[in-house]
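This section describes the prediction task in plain terms. A model, or a person checking by hand, is given the sequence of a single protein chain and must write out its three-dimensional structure as a string of tokens. No templates, partner chains or ligands are provided. The sample shown here is typical of the held-out split.
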Amino acid sequence: MSPAIEPLENRVLLSVTPAQLQADAQALVRASSSSTAALNAVRSAEFGLIKGITGSLRKNGGIIGAVVGKTLATTLTGAGKTGYGHIQTSQKTLSTSARVTAKRSLAQGKALLKNSNDTTLQANVQDLINQLNATVPDALASLQTVLADAGNAIQSAVTAIVAVLPDITSSLGSVAQTIIQKSQAFDDALAAIPTAAAQLAADLSSITAQGAATVTHAYVGPAPVK
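The expected answer:
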């Protein structure tokens, strides 16, 4: 057989390249890192606001600040510490899941591109597809629940303070605005994670489909002489 003529089984046209797979895996890792950095920025701003409120409560609350204010300040500070403790734990779970799955997807996907008939690789890649489509989104949903619970606890504590001293937050408007902006950046960073995970899952699904579509018995060349 001429070197220019080979079985179709050795000429599989790949719709997903190793470079694309790597780029999409890196996109998921970056999204994970960005979300962690964005959370840290929100946490810093939030605790700045909490510190400002509790400090103002003690300074300007008069008798109320001395007697009731200490309890209110302790409640707010505790809500912040507890809430963000839970948030950071949940964020770490999400980030770790995304990073580890991305790295494994890259390694197993590249390996399957080289050996599409390896049943162990096929099973591993299918498991990774399931993780990208389910485990990572589930971790995000869990984080969003924790965020809501923590936010409600902090807001409840702030509301109790404002009820006692309505003017306490008037000087903290710029800090509150900063929190809103950083929270939006955090939301945007989180939104990028399932998008990146879905793209990587699509890559792996395409790779498995390519392997299944490989023609294993075909001959390209002149008709055999009878």
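For orientation: The two ends are 17 Å apart (CA to CA).
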